[in-house]
Design goal:
Chain lengths: ~425, ~170
């Protein structure tokens, strides 16, 4: 019987010939990723044995550098764990640090066709690299770390075939908002992306989409492998791997085609993303206090490039704070070399180090009472980025950059046309 | 057979309602005192050991926070819903809370009804109406984790994590 990508990877990892919706897959985990929050006092338990330290990565990301005594204690506990068990893939505060999902991708720790465990809800990000990965609970992580296994209940899969290319000023975030608006949530379902648009979609763009799978309530979000992915992985990790393709006659719950060239910039209105997005024109003119570009979804080099393109030779409006946070320190260095950081800083943006930071309302850009923020990050839940009375709109990095210049929510189209690039 | 008194909740009951954000770094006992404080203040004083929750669709949507532990610590004996969110279900298994899907359950029970759950027969009966419904079976491995108090006692027993007083 034919299988989808997720069914194939789960069958392989569990040693079963077949996987179908409703089945339980007990699988060997190829990579367990611990983040700084894994070592927080309320979820950490003293580990006596690690199944295989070479299949573990420790990446500090939620509050980096430590923002307060609690995060400092969490980091200290993580360092001690990494030392005690000899974890080689340890990304402490410093040059190799970044948001875990970004670090895992840029080092290709998660190889195509494999299974990854991490307790952050945006772990589905690794699906861009053709992995089985989803957010787990803290005890699941301890189980995977100590036994080398975890389990998944297999859900049905929705397939999106992407065609064409994005128009200028339109990007993966707009595609996500289009899906959330038109198809609603995907609770207990898998999402699979493929189609003729793939050669034109960078790994950065794919990661934006799979990361946002969490906001669709999807179990897994994954991409069909192609040459772009295989070259990306080979350039970063010499280990052999076997990408998994869907069978041509795989059974999908639904199959949808989306023409990328017909999409337009979208904005999600405050508090939720599901069936709550509008074309940017419908929200345009809303005055803002803060604009944010960052997170595991939108702190990529692509995002820096587009923000720089919009902001080159322009200024952030008076009274608006534009905060830009790279997904990793490696991205920050690339953005420096490419000249993007200079352009952003000249325009009046605050460029921070890599951290989850403002996206999770932790530090470096927390919003105050009754403020309005437009964000290119992961979530716009009430209270997510700070005070519960703040209103959080969500858009693409281009839309956020254009809005920072205008001082109100703005369509990036006109800024792209006259870009001083 | 396990029987419990029913508390009814609707669709899309999220993890933040069961474990509000400001309580994330508090102790499990303090977290258990905050369950449903936004949508049903006073519930934690009214719920009794062994009571049952009957919910609607996508019960437990939201984050990976251990909301299931709070329900268990409030004394909830079992939870039946039309559909259960995948991540909440994982945490129910992890922390040893009996949580099952049961199509039709939301309309078959009223608040205060009794619910008689038979895991052996995968059914639940409402003694007031006399009607029974099929409960969707879960795999044996997950059932035994749920019944055995979750994964942490198992990891302790195997010497993989250090023992700690139950939380």
């Amino acid at each position: 019987m034919a299988m989808t990508i997720i069914e194939k990877i789960l069958a392989r990892a569990s040693g079963a010939a077949m996987m179908a919706p409703g089945d339980l897959a007990v699988v060997d985990v190829d990579l367990t990723v611990m983040i700084d929050l894994s070592f927080s006092g309320s979820s950490w338990r003293e580990v006596l044995k690690v199944h295989d330290p070479d299949k573990v990565a420790v990446v500090f990301d939620h509050e980096v550098p430590a923002a307060n005594r609690e995060s400092a204690a969490m980091h200290a506990r993580g360092r001690e764990f990494a030392r005690r068990f000899g974890i080689k893939r340890f990304h402490d505060v410093g040059p190799e640090q970044g948001i875990s999902h970004v670090v895992v991708a840029e080092n290709a720790y998660c190889l195509p066709g494999t299974v990854m465990a991490c307790s952050d809800s945006h772990t589905c990000s690794a699906g861009a690299l053709n992995c089985v990965a989803r957010g787990l609970g803290a005890p699941d992580l301890l189980y995977a770390l100590t036994t080398g296994q975890t389990w998944f209940l297999v859900g049905e899969t929705v397939r999106y075939d992407l065609s064409g290319r994005f128009a200028e000023g339109v990007s993966a975030k707009d595609l996500f908002l289009h899906i959330a608006q038109n198809y609603g949530d995907h609770a207990n379902q898998n999402v699979e992306f493929g189609g003729p648009a793939l050669p034109h979609l960078s790994i950065d763009a794919r990661r934006t989409l799979t990361t946002m799978g969490a906001e669709l309530s999807a179990e897994f979000a994954t991409f069909e492998p192609d040459d772009v992915l295989i070259d990306y992985v080979k350039a970063r990790n010499p280990a052999p791997f076997e990408p998994q393709y869907p069978d041509p006659d795989a059974a999908y719950l639904r199959r949808e085609t989306i023409a990328l060239d017909r999409l337009e910039p979208m904005v999600a209105l405050p508090d939720k993303v599901i069936r709550n997005a509008v074309p940017v024109g419908d929200a345009a003119g809303e005055p803002i206090h803060q604009a944010f570009i960052g997170s595991c979804a939108n702190g990529t080099l692509d995002d820096f490039a587009i923000a720089a393109k919009v902001l080159a030779g322009r200024r952030v409006a008076p009274g608006v704070r534009l905060i830009v946070t790279p997904g990793s320190q490696a991205i920050l260095r690339e953005a420096l070399k490419a000249g993007y950081v200079e352009i952003l800083a000249e325009a009046g943006a605050v460029v921070t180090n890599s951290t989850c930071g403002a996206c999770v309302g932790g530090h470096m850009g927390v919003v105050g009472p009754n403020e309005v923020c437009i964000t290119a990050s992961t979530r716009n839940f009430k209270g997510r980025m700070g005070d519960p009375s703040a209103r959080i709109f969500m858009g693409s990095p281009a839309t956020v950059a254009a809005s920072a210049i205008a001082g109100v929510i703005a369509d990036p189209g006109e800024y792209m046309k006259g870009a001083n690039w | 057979m396990i029987s419990g008194r029913v508390w009814k909740f609707g669709d899309n009951i999220n993890t933040d309602l069961m474990l509000p954000g400001p309580y994330l770094y508090r102790t499990p006992a303090e977290q258990a005192r905050a369950v449903f404080q936004a949508n049903r203040p006073g519930w934690v004083d009214a719920v009794a050991k062994g009571d049952a929750i009957v919910g609607g669709f996508n019960y437990g949507m939201g984050s990976s926070r251990p909301a299931a532990r709070s329900l268990r610590n409030c004394g909830v004996g079992f939870l039946l819903a039309e559909t259960v969110n995948g991540l909440f279900f994982r945490n129910a298994v992890n922390f040893g809370l009996l949580v099952f899907e049961c199509p039709g359950v939301a309309s078959a029970f009223e608040e205060g009804d009794g619910a008689e759950l038979s895991i052996e027969r995968w059914s639940v009966r409402n003694p007031r109406s006399g009607k029974s419904l099929a409960v969707t079976p879960v795999p044996e491995m997950l059932l035994s984790l749920m019944r055995g108090g979750g994964v942490l006692p198992q990891l302790e027993a195997q010497g993989l994590i250090a023992p700690q007083a139950a939380d």
